[in-house]
Amino acid sequence: MRLSENRPSPRVRAGRELPLSGKDLLGLLSEVLAKGVRIRFRASGYSMSPFIRDGDVITVRPCKKTDLRKGAVAAYVRPMNGHLAVHRIVGGTEAGFALKGDHEPIADYPVAASGIIGVVDRVERNGRRVRLGIGPEKGLVAALSARGLITWAFRAFGRNKGSVT
Fold first, then answer.
1. Angle at 103 between CA 46 and CA 128, to 5 degrees
2. pLDDT of 56 strictly over 90
3. What would the DSSP string read from start to end of the chain?
4. How much is the pTM?
5. Nearest to 53 by CA among 158, 101, 125, 137
6. How confident is the model at residue 95 (pLDDT cuts 50, 70, 90)?
7. May I ask the CATH architecture of the domain 22-156?
């Protein structure tokens, strides 16, 4: 059985990493989380900087209704384009949850609870665990992020994009 008529199947790289992105990563993530199992993958992009950086390894676990609260970092399907995103819950309305990258100026369209497929419960950078931003302070981080103050706060206190550990 072939995976696709037009695409070669992905090959596992040295170091036992499977290079997936886009719809392929979303499909695998959804299937693994639906089975109640955690999944790790390498973050791509800077929208969650400084707490999650490009290249960090994040672990996503299946979410329960009680996980969906302000400050949680969630993996979800963006309603406007169907792509996978990992952003922080900064609020909610009857239309759904407001999710926003900590480094982004505005939140995404409201996301229904059914569009959230998991929550981040671990971040690793260079083989070391990063706790800042997903621990007990996540509510405060969400409040700052909702107001667009994360980048300002790190600049004001003399930290740059690469210094959170």
1. 55
2. yes
3. --S-SSSPPP-PBTTTB----HHHHHHHHHHHHHTT--EEEE--SSTTTTTS-TT-EEEEE---GGG-STT-EEEEE-TTT--EEEEEEEEEETTEEEEE-TTSSSPPSPB-GGGEEEEEEEEEETTEEE-TTTSTTHHHHHHHHHTT-HHHHHHHTT--TT---
4. 0.78
5. 125
6. confident
7. Ribbon (2.10)
